[in-house]
């Protein structure tokens, strides 16, 4: 008879580093400009003599660090309740372009970045979660700094590139991707309402996490990612709690 799971798992977790990759959400935080702000009401309050404290939250599903399932952009795509828990614990790959972004906020990853990662670490494992490290999360929660809009109204933020996403999804069969910015597409694209990269990811039946934090605390390879979220029936997005173990 095999040992109980925890007896096998506990030694693997002992002395590991756990890194929270999630921003705590709140009213006034950076968000997609077409969405309303969060409202929060205290229904019961122990400070006022009630026996317990309870809040009512009004938020858009895409709020703070959040998950986008395929149904967010694809009619008939998988909804949050249809994403299996087996996909919530994945090998973590960190693709780092933060140095380039520091000199050019419009920077995006290239195949050279991916091939460089694979040259150091081997092929990106199938079923991985690939996080794009840009350093952009250090701008949180400054909405103006996150949007980085110029005098002409154009946003200058990093994002993914089509060639890299196609390679990750079609050649390496990753399960999901994530990034520190508000959007999958770079700011110059979203400024003209071009969300083609996010559409591409979700149309391949993949999911993604937006507005990740603390990617600079992770190794580029060898960590595991745990991503969890609520299970609204036919949900098209929800705040997520995401962390890594290495």
TrEMBL record:
Q: Where are the transmembrane segments?
A: none
Q: Which Pfam families match?
A: Cyclase
InterPro entries the UniProt entry points to: KFase/CYL, KFase_sf
What this protein is called in its record is Kynurenine formamidase
Q: Which organism is it from?
A: Arthrobacter bambusae
Q: What is the lineage of its organism?
A: Bacteria, Bacillati, Actinomycetota, Actinomycetes, Micrococcales
